[in-house]
Design a protein that fits this description.
alpha/beta, five-stranded parallel beta sheet, 18 strands, 17% strand, disordered N terminus
Length: 444
């Protein structure tokens, strides 16, 4: 076996790479491109051979790690193993997120001096303004994307963890689409919006005559997701009684419709999402540990908007395309600067709502600071009145919760949305619990 560094071996490798449809290059330990296959030249530049990889891909004058990026070549030289990173590369169509994998080659002495770099453009998201994709360029966003890219082709359960409004359902759909299941069903279930009894019949379906009003058999959402993805949003709000049934479904791979006796096989990819700390809920006993470990095979954290402020201009441009299609709206510099300074406790959802309202106030093609800061919705709310202490005797927990919720509504001075956030509930869960308490309250 002759060393891979000689011309014959390089020629053999080059011919092999030219047969592949994905962009690939051969580089040296000094970042020099020795060969680029046709797919790479079409995407990143016909004059790649003889140049440095960081120059062609990024327009840098020095290696990626010296420009604040992770460098797969430096990582491979240190570890001796293949390494994988997510970069933003220049392409013929503009900047794109690219999954970069570097594999070292070695001669018979074991010395590493040639490397094959494989590039795979991401379909999960865009580094340019796009109305139909997740967008971002920040380091924390790219770390999240790389995890999602790794999870997409597998069947492992994924747990998305992030504050309300960070785009958990959007990421779940992107994982589903990128995993080769785009043509298969994606079934989303909001665990917080369904009552305990309704949730079971919605998930598993029911047989005719199973209960009053069940006039015909109904297919459940688990059955509808067969061959595709079942997305359980706000899984932390799932009642303990339903956690047991979900665990049985995941362990057995089958279920029974309500009122049924026959087991039905289930085949789906599970993605769950929550804004809650499930590990803490396990410790407190409000979430089953065995179910938690079933769900958290591959956890992915979605960063809040305050951790990716550099993405706000790109997000704003993308959201304006969605909320005002065809208008080509832009933000004036003062308006954009104001957005960059906002806390955005509601994350991307809050940014979208703000831009949609501002677009309705703008008569031209430019959204001004005045459009964003209209007093109708952006005036600073008055400070809530001083709250009296909550006092109660020794009560059953259900009655205690009822009294506390009524006290919080009456004395907090917060809107329902703000109160729900303060109590770490979804707004729908708060409405449902208040409505339930009012129905149970004795007539005066």
């Amino acid at each position: 076996m002759s060393p891979l560094s000689n011309e014959a071996s390089l020629d053999t490798i080059s011919r092999m790479l030219d047969e592949l449809s994905e962009p690939r290059i051969v580089i040296t330990e000094h970042f020099e491109i020795l060969h680029a296959n046709q797919a790479y030249r079409a995407a990143y530049g016909a004059e790649a051979p003889g140049r440095h990889c960081y120059e062609v891909s990024h327009g840098y004058q020095r290696p990626c790690d010296e420009e604040g990026e992770s460098c797969p070549l430096r990582m491979t030289l240190a570890s001796g193993q293949p390494e994988r990173v997510l970069h933003i590369h220049r392409t013929a169509h503009g900047d794109e997120h690219v999954d970069v994998e570097l594999m070292p080659l070695a001669d018979i002495s074991g010395h590493r001096h040639l490397f094959i770099e494989k590039m795979k453009p991401l379909q999960l998201a865009s580094s340019q303004a796009a109305a139909d994709k997740m967008v971002g360029r920040s380091a924390v966003f790219r770390r999240m994307l790389l995890l999602a890219q790794r999870a997409a082709p597998s069947s492992a359960a994924v747990l998305l963890i992030g504050e309300s409004g960070t785009g958990k359902e959007g990421l779940a759909r992107a994982i589903h689409d990128s995993g080769g299941a785009a043509q298969r069903p994606f079934i989303a279930v909001d665990c917080a919006s369904l009552s305990e009894t309704l949730l079971e019949s919605e998930l598993f379906g029911y047989e005719k005559g199973a209960f009053t009003g069940a006039n015909q058999r109904k297919q459940g959402l688990v059955e509808a997701a067969h061959g595709g993805t079942l997305f359980l949003d706000e899984i932390g709000d799932l009642p303990l009684s339903q956690q047991v049934k979900l665990l049985r479904l995941l362990e057995s791979g089958s279920f029974r419709r309500v009122g049924g006796i026959n087991s039905i096989p289930a085949s789906f990819r599970l993605i769950a999402a929550t804004h809650r700390n499930l590990a803490a809920m396990v410790e407190s006993g409000s979430f089953r540990a065995d179910l938690y470990y079933r769900l958290a095979v591959f956890p992915i954290r979605l960063p809040p908007l305050r951790e990716r402020r550099e993405d706000i201009p790109l997000l704003a441009a993308s959201l304006l395309e969605r909320v005002a299609p065809g208008r080509r709206l832009q933000l004036e510099p003062a308006a954009l600067q104001w957005l960059l300074q906002q806390p955005f406790n509601g994350n991307i959802r809050e940014l979208r709502n703000l831009l949609e309202r501002a677009s309705l106030l703008s008569d031209g093609d430019v959204i001004t600071l005045e459009n964003l800061c209209a007093d109708e919705w952006n005036s600073t709310p008055p400070a809530p009145p001083a709250m009296q202490d909550f006092h109660c005797g020794l009560l059953p927990l259900e009655q205690l919760e009822s009294q506390y919720l009524q006290w919080a509504v009456a004395h907090s001075g917060l809107s329902r949305q703000q109160l729900a956030s303060a109590l770490q509930l979804t707004e729908r869960t708060l409405y449902r619990r208040l409505a339930g308490r009012q129905k149970k309250a004795p007539a005066s």
